[in-house]
Design brief:
The chain is α/β, with parallel strands linked by helices. Strands 2-3-1-4-5 form a 5-stranded parallel β-sheet, with helices on both faces. The radius of gyration is 18 Å and the shape is globular. The chain starts with 15 loop residues before the first strand and ends in a 10-residue tail after the last helix. The relative contact order is 0.22. Bound molecules: 3'-fluoro-3'-deoxythymidine monophosphate. The site of 3'-fluoro-3'-deoxythymidine monophosphate has 10 residues, from helix 5.
């Protein structure tokens, strides 16, 4: 009779999948398509986004983005961080129960946008050290000029070409070799195809017990 050592036990879990990119890169549509695809294939999956505008903190962020309130750059940065921190335990329990989360923006947006205003990168990272690290980060890559040509910048605070150029540089500085870069100017179907492949592999690794890791550690 074979007894499995407890260290051999496989803790199957859901995957934390994060999509990042500039405004108008197609992130939100692709998150939706990916969510439907996984759901239809019978996988437990939820679509999340940051900022989560449904919480009290999220409402403060929303009114800031709509230019209805002004806040100090550091203060709004910390609200974005708090908005992720307040979802941390729910996030972890969903993943442990086997649910995959497709997340439209995460801490990388926090650092990219705030550091584009001139805040120190390390200062920006600090409040979120220890949050769950994504199992995969997909960056939908588009030049700020191309994104602006797509039109439909909605008039929110950051939706301006000059600022988006700086954000693009911040993202580049933040990205590492683990990020999957997908060319966002391909057709919707081709982007979708690449995403499915990336996410299928990632989901598989998490089902096979890939351990959690923490941000910025
Ligand atoms: N944004 C988003 C930040 O500045 N910091 C953050 O931590 C996050 C998650 O908020 F311009 C910015 C990015 C974007 C704006 O995002 C709202 P959506 O995806 O358009 O809702």
């Amino acid at each position: 009779q074979i007894h499995m050592a407890s260290s051999d036990k496989i803790d199957s879990r859901g995957a934390l999948v994060v999509l990042e990119g500039l405004d108008r890169c197609g992130k939100t549509s692709q998150c939706g398509r990916l969510h439907s695809y996984l759901e239809e294939s019978g996988h437990a999956v939820e679509l999340w986004r940051f900022p989560d505008r449904n919480t009290g903190v999220g409402q403060m962020i929303s009114s800031y983005l709509a230019n209805q309130t002004n806040l100090d750059d550091r203060a709004i940065h910390l609200l974005f961080s708090a908005n992720r921190l307040e979802k941390r335990s729910l996030m972890e329990s969903k993943l442990r129960s086997g649910t995959t989360l497709i997340v439209d923006r995460y801490s990388f947006s926090g650092v990219a946008f705030s550091s584009a205003k001139g805040l120190d990168v390390e200062w920006c990272k600090a409040p979120e050290a220890g949050l769950l690290a994504p199992d995969v980060v997909v960056y939908l890559d588009i030049s700020p000029e191309k994104a602006a040509e797509r039109g439909g910048y909605g008039g929110e605070r950051y939706e301006k070409l000059e600022f988006q150029k700086t954000v693009a540089q911040s993202y580049k500085a933040l990205s590492d070799s683990t990020w999957k870069i997908v060319e966002a100017t391909l057709s919707i179907e081709d982007v979708e195809k690449q995403l499915r492949q990336i996410v299928k592999e990632c989901v598989q690794m998490c089902q096979n017990g890939k351990p959690f890791s923490q941000l910025w550690r």
